[in-house]
Write a structure and sequence with these properties.
single chain, mainly alpha, rod-shaped
């Protein structure tokens, strides 16, 4: 009796399976990089907001006290 698939068909099936694995690995790598990029951007944004919040109390619209005293004096 002969096999249901020939040697050539088995090789083709193996190549197709290998290509499928390669494509899935590339997709997973892209997904992981995308997730890392999103986490990095979120962390950068959070740090920026934290820095801005820390600067907020200093910037209350009153100006710099030393700058106001020296404003009328020549340099």
């Amino acid at each position: 009796m002969t096999e249901s698939t020939s040697h050539v068909e088995q090789q083709i099936a193996a190549r197709i399976a290998a290509a499928r694995v390669k494509v899935q690995a590339a997709q997973q790598r892209r997904d992981e990089l995308s997730a890392a990029r999103r986490r990095g951007l979120a962390a950068r944004h959070a740090n920026k907001l934290r820095r801005l919040a820390e600067q907020r109390p200093d910037d209350d619209g009153q100006g710099d006290e030393e700058g106001e005293r020296d404003a009328g004096k020549p340099a």
